[in-house]
Amino acid sequence: MGFDYDLIGANKLKDLTVKNGTIYSSVGNTYKFLVLPESNFIKPETLKKVKELVEGGAVVIGKKPTQSPSLIDYPKNDEVVKTYVDELWGKDLVKDISVSEVLSEKTPDFKIESSDQTDLSFIHRKTDDADIYFIANARKEARDIVARFRVSAKQPELWNSETGKIKDVVVFKENEDGTTTIPLQLGIEESVFIVFKKPTIANHLTSVKMELEQPKSELLSNLEIVKAEYGTFLQEGLIDITDKVNNAIIDGELDFKMSRAFCDCDPAMGYKKELRMEYQIGNTKHQIYAEEREHIKVDAGNKPLKVLKAVFGKFKTETKGIPENYKTFEITNKIKELVSSNTFDILISNQLIKNQIPKEIKQL
Questions:
Q1: Tens digits of per-residue pLDDT, 116-149?
Q2: What's the CA gap between 333 and 354, in Å, rounded?
Q3: Helices 76-88 and 44-55, interaxial angle, to 10°?
Q4: From the CB of residue 201, how many other CB atoms can be counted at a distance below 10 Å?
Q5: I want to staple 59 with a disulfide (CB 3.0 to 4.6 A). Which of 33, 255, 260, 305 is the partner?
């Protein structure tokens, strides 16, 4: 949503203070509001601290609890909880609303204005005289983005922590809502610090436009279409090692250490990797989830053993289970026909397979 947050345990709640409606942690971090967990249970001492915070001007939101999670002083503590709840929620000192409702009318601290907002993260920290943003591109591809920062009247600077170089951002736009928009170029898995510290330079570029004349497409003299497939493939950072694992089965037994040496590959260099495998013993299917360097051993006894799917690499958080083996379509001859007819701008669509409908996202 363009807003940063931190998690805090109930045992650390006592260290929070409030000044002018802003919540301060014991180490000086500041927060605009506190969100209580979505639970029916809460300790009386937690509600006592919540009351102290809201009376000091803090904004606190959360679901109305009903009882204490502890049997200490039962049922007295349940009555104490009820008393606090009636006062805090009954007088609207704590609001039972969602985070999105609270933030709906607030300007995001950081916002990606370009269309693709995935695989980007940020952290914002403040000092007495500067706003420091850390922007990270998690993709294995370079990308151009347009980002909006909730800072105004300050000159943005690019700080490269690897080289130590600091340079002023030349192109940026100051918006009427107190934000600054900056176009950024991020390399493969690159991160950068954007620091706002100095006063804004009076004369700076707000936008640039590049116009390039597209050269006429011509067939390369040494171009050879070797193979072309269309369909759904594994996401970046994963590799299918089903055949390699099947080849490791000896006399109905699978015994190997899941490592880069085993698969002779490194699909996600520098990342912790995982094996997800589905196999069948007789008529029964099983699954294995294993970390890199973990030992895998499967003994089928006298029954036939077959590996149905084995995928190794870095799985995204949203990737659940073992990726399916979707059908792909051989389109080598189709691509050769298009190229031989001087068609070099080829639309990747189901027309390449005569409008058959493969599952999921299509790729070439």
A1: 778 888 989 888 899 999 999 888 788 889 999 9
A2: 13
A3: 20
A4: 12
A5: 33
